[in-house]
Design brief:
RNaseH-like_sf; 27 helices; globular; HAT C-terminal dimerisation domain-containing protein; single chain; HATC_C_dom; about 600 residues; 4 domains; alpha/beta; protein dimerization activity; about 10% strand
Length: about 600
Amino acid sequence: MDLKLSMYILHHSSIRSVDHLGECLSKVGPGECNISLKLHRTKCGRLITNVFGPTYLQEIVNAVGRTHYSLIIDESTDVSVNKYLAICVRYFNGTSLTVTNDFLGLVEVERATAVDLHALLINFLQKIGLPLQNMIALGTDGGANLCGRNNSVFTLLQNDVPNLILLKCICHSIHLCSSKASSELPSCLDFLCREIYNWFSNSPLRKIEYRKIYDLININENRSFKNFVKLSPTRWLARFNVIDRIVDQWTELKTFFNMVGDKEKCYKAKTLADILNDNKILMYLKFLLPLLQDNYKTNLMFQSDTCDVGSAYSQYFLTIESLAQRVIKPLFLNSNSTQIMPTDSKLQVINRIKQAVENDMAYLSLDSFDEKNEFKRRCFNFLKSLLREYLERIPSNIEIFDNIKFLNPVYALNKQHNVFSLLPINKFILQNESMATIENQWRKLALVEWQYEFNNKVVPNNILQFWPGVYNYKDGSGQQIFKELATVVLRVLSLPVGNATVERCFSIMNIVKTKIRNRMKLSTLSAIIRTKIYCYNRNICCKNFVASEEMFALFNSSMYSDSGDNANANTSNNDENSEIETMLNIVTSVDE
């Protein structure tokens, strides 16, 4: 009962609230039958910090075992202005037969230099028992101290793991593309997107007045009202949502600010009214909307933990090709005066586009630039800038992802097009693994009737669902006849796609550690984040939680022993109501 209630508190409430909850539950039912329950914040805090956290960390380390894994790291600062390095791991879990992203922990950072971060990372891996030699890739957000060319965490790790692969977050890159290209458009667009949200954000009266106008204009239409979105330089998907809401409510906004501009002597309101009355601004926004929608969908694909990497990068390349065809002459895109063929490698197409953007003669010609064609010129320059940004941010090891599409079941099970030499696995085959054995298993792959090996008699199209099934496939004698091939492929699929996993950890951190709970210790914070993500990945909640033998083994008096960061964790982690109680005591004393 103590473990189950502590798991409930971890997921749904603050630790301090268990004081009253435990006392209420001790007397329940007819006649207030007594239940032997002694759970308060001290015990609950120690169960979270010294039982749940260590148990799940050990289970993750055991699940990784001797398999190869990738690390995803990033830095952030919490509400108490403490700087942390978050460490996540991506690996193939042989027990659940899934490629899993798990949270390992937080490490407090004093100085965010490459040497210091590298030392902290190495010490953390040694402490938890994760072998550094099995790391195949490092995922970062692109910061110079994490992945710079000369002196970074990545270059220092290469001294220990020479074949380590660096993967910068594609989600950050896609976001920066549209953000930087927007400088080619009138600055009043950003002003409009930013100030419309600010106008309504802190005024309930303005919201009510605007809602009345909105309902009046749409009185005969079944349209639901949607709030405006804040334009943020750090939120990857915000720009599309901001413009989409403004375009959707353009008439209502124009009517509202025309009235406000006449009634209120406010320069900002008049400026917004003038912008909304300019039809060219609406044309710019409608021009941007489909481009940002492609950007939005592509970014969203890469953020998913179950992302089909081959399909996602195919969509990424398709976006680049589509932009190139809008600004570059066909002669410079085609090879030997022929059209782009489906059989052409995407890298060949991208290389031709890279050469074309450096040639001023390759761009499509426009009419003479005058005031009438200013709109056309700015839009054309935006497309050129967006294309350049996309090309500059293509990963340096893109050839791996370009060929991942051949691991898709559509290609892998096609007897005519499953060419072994096209597979992106050469860099991931170890010295003790036989290339001949792997190739032989690849040739047999298309001969198996795989629809009978999966649920619903359907072969999954997602490679993250297909290859674990191949790994687990057994013949009549119980032997895994595709184990060597599937092991190498799953090693490739363990590469991090983006940095979204660690960003989600920081989102959880900001929800757990708030201004009121600003004294929460690092050990408790790490345990809560780790447990939440571990349970989410495995569909565990407090309702179906079952305590393991390891948890019962740690559930003893030794969990109360204070050491280092755990000292006084039970009190410092549960002061979320102390400020309120102090304030109420002061008010009471004043009244008396």
